[in-house]
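[Automated response] Your request has been received and processed.

Submitted sequence:
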Amino acid sequence: MRKGTPEAASQGGFRARVHPAATIDAGSPSLVLTTAQIPLYDPANCCIVSCSQADWDLAARIMQCGRMTRLREFAEFFQGEVNETNERKRGTLAAGPEEGTFVNRGAGICLYVLRPESQGRDLYIDVDKFLEGKGDATKAFHHRQSRIGLQESCPQNNFRRIIAAFIPAGRFLNHKVNYCPERACDSDLRFLAALLNSNLSDWYFRLGSTNASVSHYQLYNLPCPRFAERPATKNGRGEKAVFKAVAAGNLAAAWQTVEPMLQEAPFPLEVQQAIVAAVERIMAIEGARKNMARKDRSALHPDAQPYQDFIDRLFYRMAGLTDAESAGLEERLARML
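Generated structure:
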C-alpha cells in the first residue's frame, strides 16, 4: 500500500509480487498493473490476480477491446437442487433405484457428457416427497429442463478447472454441481457448454482462482463474445452451409465460411451456429464411448478433439487474438497445471 491522493493512485503502475511461503525474495514472480486496470478482470470484486505479465496484459486487452462481454449477461447459474445433508434430515432420500430417482453428482460430470460416476455411493431421491410443498417456480423443478452442469469443486492442479456437461431433462443434481437451466440462458445450451469447456475460459478462470471452488461469481466473470441478433446472410444460407460442413467433418471449409465474420463484434449468428454444430459432433462421439477407464475421462476422443480445436480457434479469434498469441496462451496454460 502507498499513501497518496486518488489522482496519484490512478497514474502510473505498481508492481504486484507473489513471494513463496514465508520468504521475501527480490526475484519472486511479479507483474506491473494500474489501479484503472484492476476492474477489467473482475469488476465486481476488483481482485488483483497472480499471473505472468503476458497473461495479465492479454486479459486486460481482451476485456478492453469491445469484442467481448461477460457470461453474466446471458446466463444464470444455480447450485444443485438436492442437498444430501438436508434431504437426509427431511427423509426424502431413497434406499435405491426401486424406491427413488438417481441424483447425479460431480463425479459424473465430464467434458460435454454425463458418465457413470467414478467414486462415491449412488444417491437416490423420492421425487414426490422432495417436491412436496415446493412451487413450480423454484429450482426444485429445474429438473424438468435441459441444463448445463459443471463440477462445483475442482483441484487447482486438475487437467481442467471448468468441466461442463449437457444434462438432459429429467435428471436431478446434488449440491456439488453448479448448473444453468435452459430457461435461464439467452443462448443455445450447447454454445454455453462450448464456452465453458474452451481453453479461453479455463485460462481466464485460472488467473483469478486461489482455491478449488468453481463459484458462480467466477463463472459470471468469464469473457463471452458479443453476438448480433440475426445472421449475416439471408434465408439462413450461411448457417446451413456451416452446419453442413461441420457435420461432414470438413472443418477447413467451415473455417473459410466463418473467418470473414470474425473481423468485428457483434458477430453474426452463423459463428455461434458453427460452434453449436461442432458441439453436436463432440457429444455424439463422446456419447458413444463406453466402459472407459477413469484416467481416459480427462481427454476427448481423438475423433472429437479436432472439433474442440475448431471451437477454441473461434473463441480466440473472437477475443481478438492472433494465432501466435493463441499458441502462447496455450503454452502458459499448460504450465499452470
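Summary generated for your ticket: The longest strand covers residues 147-151. The two ends are 31 Å apart (CA to CA).
If you did not submit this request, please reply to this message.
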